[in-house]
Amino acid sequence: MRKFDWDDLQAFLAVVRAGRLTVAARKLGVDHSTLSRRIAGLEQAIGATLFDRRSAGYALTAEGERLVPDAEAMESLAIRIRSRQDDAAQGLAGSVRIGTPEAWGTYFMARELRELVRLHPELEVELVANPRMFSLSKREADIAVSMTRPEQGRLIARRLNDYELGLYAARAYLDEHGPVVGRRDLERHRLVGYIEDLRWSPELDYLGEISSSLTPQIRISNVISQVQAVAAGVGVGVLPCFLARREPGLIRLLPDEIRMTRAYWLLTHADARDLLRVQVVADFIVSRLAALGEDFWMDARGRASG
Predict the structure, then answer these.
(1) 39 and 102 co-located in one domain
(2) Is a pLDDT exceeding 50 seen at residue 89?
(3) For residue range 159-210, what is the model confidence (pLDDT) as tens digits?
(4) Is residue 273 a part of any domain in this protein?
């Protein structure tokens, strides 16, 4: 019987995450025949079939599903050992990937990168600002920013900041379609909102919070594009105040009636508590947010802007 090999487990996890042999091989920097041999070797060592080979890709068997958490635990241990050695040998160097919602990453984190790399010039930073949830256990990011606090998993969550949302429209749109003086008026206006099946967090159901009868006619997958659509006079939409105030032509509607608050959470994996570079970047984010202050995220002028 073939001996168990850690490289085979790495190959297994790569195929699990990619779903296709060729994609996983490209990420590992090996040819697909080598990767296929590693998977076959692992199955021989364990004595079980781990994947159903299908034309659409590799699907886990029941045995494969059971192996995933153990393989990820071994991967976490290997990463921690290697990272501690790297930290001790190199100081604060290496790569840190930060996964964030698009607005938070674009309008806060991107502008803070200059100070981060000034303080730590050997650090390599990857900022992934996409409208999605990031899996830390699957190594999609070292640090993630989420709109919800996770209820399960080996994650450490810190509340970063609250932010306010309001109802907005462009002056040109209101001139053409009439004012909004009450919630019921919204039923006769064109609304801008999210594509329902692409809402990556339940916290994004803003219109449903105003009224269950409101349905957006214009549906857009990300908030930055929604801001631009509302600013261009496409319709009325619920927008984060820290984005809407950047568009001078936007008017906040019903500010005393419609005021929503959401929060951002900073997530790190429990295995990262010993990784110096991850902890330093996480602490940097927290400190820079504290220095920025609450006014950046809230709309102190909201009650007077209707």
Answers:
(1) no
(2) no
(3) 999 999 999 999 999 999 999 999 999 999 999 999 999 998 889 999 989 9
(4) yes
Predicted confidence at residue 81, as pLDDT, reads 65
Are residues 155 and 267 both part of a single domain?
yes
Per-residue pLDDT reduced to its tens digit, 12-50? 888 888 888 888 888 888 888 888 888 888 888 888 899
Whether residue 145 sits in one domain with residue 10: no
Residues 204-231: b if buried by 16+ CB within 10 A, e if exposed = bebbeebeeebebeebbebbbebbebbb
More confident call, 269 vs 143: 143
Angle, alpha carbons 274-275-280 (nearest 5°): 110
**CA pair distance 98, 129, nearest whole angstrom:** 8
Q: Provide the domain count of the chain.
A: 3
Contact 112, 100 (CB under 8 A): no
178 — phi, psi (to 5°)? 100, 160
In a domain, residue 84? The reply is no
Of the candidates 160, 168, 200, which has an alpha carbon nearest to the alpha carbon of residue 288? 160
DSSP state of 233: T
CATH assignment at residue 169: 3.40.190.10
135 and 93 within one domain:
yes
Does residue 300 sit within a domain? no
Q: Is residue 301 part of a domain?
A: no
Alpha carbon distance 14, 33 (integer Å): 14
Residue-level pLDDT at 300: 58
Q: Does 186 share its domain with 117?
A: no
Give the Cα separation of 135 and 2 in Å (integer).
32
pLDDT tens digit sequence for 238-288:
999 999 999 999 999 999 999 999 999 999 988 776 688 898 999 999 999
Strand-pairing partners, residue 164, are 261
Spatial separation of the C-alpha atoms in residues 15 and 60, rounded to whole Å: 10
Residue with tokens 């309001």: 166
Same domain flag for 274 and 135: yes
